[in-house]
Amino acid sequence: MEKNRCSWAKHPLEIQYHDEEWGVPVHDDPKHFEFLLLDTFQAGLSWLTILKKRENFRKAFDNFDFNLISGYDESKVQELLQDIGIVRNKLKISAAINNAQVFLDLRTEYGSFDKYIWSFVNGKTIQNRWESIENVPVTTAESDAMSKDMKEKGFRFVGSTTCYAYMQAAGLVNDHLVECFRYNTSGK
Questions:
Q1: Residue 2: per-residue pLDDT
Q2: 1 pLDDT higher than 90
Q3: Which of 69, 119, 152, 159 is deepest in the core (most CB within 10 A)?
């Protein structure tokens, strides 16, 4: 029997991502950074485009190791710009390096990025009750606040829409539709 899932999950990669990752609370700094990096590159593109290139991003960006990425130099930027397996956008590549540096600063300041990012939802997943995909917002007051604070701290490519997509991915909000089989298993 076919599982009832959120209507956006159609492609096999989207289905796997939806069923296994989307909306599951993340409390692991390396996973937080992976989602942040991927959401940076997703800006203006479809999530499916990024999912198709995810493993290429993993290879190109040293398994999303923020320690290594924070030290990338111009020769590494040029190497990335030649990598046809990723989104070759110089501004986004530069933002990924910059964001790794700011990420490290926040880990020092807060003890972990996890502690910092979950403060925007008071440490608890926001449980929404959407009945239709059309009801799911693209920004919220929380994503607005997160975006504003992250920009003030020096992050780039962190507009409110990107922050909300990140919140959904990292389980800060549960936006699975109430009819979705994942609705009651997310946000736990």
A1: 78
A2: no
A3: 69
Stated as kind and residue range, the H or E segment containing 108 is helix 90-110
Residue 133 banded pLDDT, cuts 50, 70, 90: very high
Domains of the chain: 26-185 (1.10.340.30)
User: Half-sphere exposure (CA, 13 Å, Cβ side) for 36?
Assistant: 30
Token readout for 24 is: 């599951």
Largest Cα–Cα distance of the chain, in whole Å? 52
pTM above 0.90, yes or no: yes
Q: Is a pLDDT exceeding 90 seen at residue 185? A: no
Phi-psi region of 68 (alpha: psi -120 to 50; beta: other; left: phi over 0): alpha
Tokens representing 132? Answer: 């239709």
**CA distances in angstroms from 8 to 13, 29, 32, 50, 84, listed in the order given:** 11, 27, 22, 15, 27
pLDDT class of 188 with cuts at 50, 70, 90? very low
Residue 117 near residue 172 (C-beta atoms within 8 A) = yes
For residues 151 and 157, give the distance between their C-alpha atoms in angstroms, rounded to a whole number. 8
The strand pairing partners of 174, in sequence order, are 127
- Alpha carbons 113 and 178: distance in angstroms, whole number: 30
Report how far residue 169's alpha carbon sits from residue 32's, in angstroms, rounded to the nearest whole number. Answer: 9
pLDDT of amino acid 187: 52
